[in-house]
Design a protein that fits this description.
The structure holds 2 protein chains of 2 kinds.
Chain A lengths: L2 E4 L4 E4 L4 E3 L1 E4 L5 E7 L5 E7 L5 E4 L2 E4 L9 E3 L8 E8 L2 H4 L6 E2 L3 E6 L1
Parallel strand pairs in A: 2-12
Antiparallel strand pairs in A: 1-4, 3-9, 5-6, 5-10, 7-8, 8-9, 10-11, 10-12
Chain B lengths: L3 E4 L2 E4 L5 E7 L4 E9 L5 E8 L5 E2 L8 E7 L2 E6 L8 E9 L2 H4 L4 E2 L3 E5 L1
Parallel strand pairs in B: 2-11
Antiparallel strand pairs in B: 1-3, 3-8, 4-5, 4-9, 5-6, 7-8, 9-10, 9-11
Classes of the chains: A mainly beta, B mainly beta.
Chain lengths: 117, 119
């Protein structure tokens, strides 16, 4: 079946450190891939996305590249800030042509990131 | 970007009472809405999917008579927790997919979440 696996947290970094949060997926067909972020006490918001192989999503200094050969979508940031402290979720969605009326996001378990000053 | 508003953001109720949470799409027509429950260790559990004008589709293990979902219009879905008990205390999050390119590629917009505490 379709699934998303992301590295377990919590991840604790010092400000300006390099961040990688690994995400791999299993899916039939050609899913879209997403990273969502949840800041403390808030709902989720889209951080970045990629809809086809080799696409790179980027936003707020974060990047992730859709690698079909390794079925991965790792999240990276070159220099994290205290304000990046949040929970990060990797997710996939199959296109409507595949999922039909059963379309939904398939979620990873989330990775908590704490950035210390 | 598209905005989804969820209300109330937090609610405290007595055991045995019912609580209604509203989810509104403010600037787009939400053909599909999803309700999630988030547990303390952050994992998201999909409770149900609702399409406008249709009965909600519940995930396995979610009691449809306890968690009533109504999606009567393209801008409003409600979740009612009936006869709430302390074990129903949780963070409930709605999300919406609308007409147009974003949902075609699977992007969802999320409400701010509602913290329910049942005493």
């Amino acid at each position: 079946g379709n699934s998303v696996t992301q590295m377990e947290g919590p991840v604790t970094l010092s400000e300006e450190a390099f961040l990688t949060i690994n995400c791999t997926y299993t899916a039939t067909g050609y899913p879209s891939l997403f990273w969502y972020v949840q800041y403390p006490g808030e709902g989720l918001q889209l951080l970045l996305k990629a809809t086809k192989a080799d696409d790179k999503g980027s936003n707020k200094g974060f990047e992730a590249t859709y690698r079909k050969e390794t079925t991965s979508f790792h999240l990276e940031k070159g220099s994290v800030q205290v304000s990046d402290s949040a929970v990060y979720f990797c997710a996939l969605s199959l296109p409507a042509s595949q999922a039909g009326n059963n379309r939904k996001l398939i979620w990873g378990l989330g990775t908590s990131l704490a950035v210390n000053p | 970007g598209a905005v989804v508003s969820q209300h109330p953001s937090w609610v405290i109720c007595k055991s045995g009472t019912s609580v209604k949470i509203e989810c509104r799409s403010l600037d787009f027509q939400a053909t599909t809405m999803f309700w999630y429950r988030q547990f303390p260790k952050q994992s998201l559990m999909l409770m149900a999917t609702s399409n406008e004008g249709s009965k909600a589709t519940y995930e396995q293990g979610v009691e449809k008579d306890k968690f009533l979902i109504n999606h009567a219009s393209l801008t409003l879905s409600t979740l009612t927790v009936t006869s709430a008990h302390p074990e129903d205390s949780s963070f409930y999050i709605c999300s919406a997919g609308g007409q147009g390119s974003s949902w075609e590629v699977g992007e969802l917009f999320f409400g701010e979440g509602s913290r329910l505490t049942v005493l």
